[in-house]
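mind reviewing this fold:
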Amino acid sequence: MKRAMILLAATLGALVLYVDLSGGKFRDRIDRERTMILENRTAAALFSDLKNNLAGLPQPVRKYLQYALGGRNEPVRAVRLKQSGSFRLSEKDSWTPITANQLLTLGKPAFVWHARLQPHPYVWTESRDILHDGVGKTEHRLYSAFPFPLKRFIGKAADVSALVRYLTEAPWLPPALLPSNHLSWKAIDDRTARAILIYNGYRVSADFTFNSESEITQVTTRDRTWNRSGASEAHPWIARYQRYERHGGIKVPMEMETEWSINGKSFPYARLQVDTIAFEGF
């Protein structure tokens, strides 16, 4: 019995050490990925000129950009966010606490999102989503150490979903919604406009809804793919934004809720609030 207890203690100790070391290596790699996408950014040297050259844009877009960017003249290269909230994977799941860090960059569309979900005091997972050079990748790890695939999600579907995610989360980086070689706008009505993003051979779009205060309140797209039961499914995806504040001279939403619309039925799956946000210049 004593030998068995010693063996069990040694095994548990080795497992804890492995989790600690593997989790540390995983997080170190994510830090390197953040550095990588920052180094590959495209300089926005003409930020002030772009901000003031909004002629020809749909009226709600023009008013939004003037509203969101009106307090800043210095160039922006990226934004870093810390988020908290709740998340679930399916309609039957309970809400799980989540904390996350996110980096989005200008020029070449890119982001890194690193999240920790803890459904139980003694159980947690870490996830990392990345868009770099037009390629989208996702990785999940149990106890930060053991990789596991939730579903097979690679190739075009992953790339397109990551690219449209960048577009739909651009309210946190409003300069990314300025017209550019990659991004254009099309009017729909006096409260809605469609953003079209073309990059690395892919074309995605999303419809942005603005309120009377010129704030983005909703973004809807059909280009994001939901993978469940091992199959890719195309459904309308909706993000709702609220509680705007000005940080670094830029107006951004501090709360977001996302949902899928499945056969007309709403499935909310993420509720996030921004705890801290900081813009990086050059």
About this structure: The two ends are 64 Å apart (CA to CA). The first strand starts at residue 78 and ends at 87.
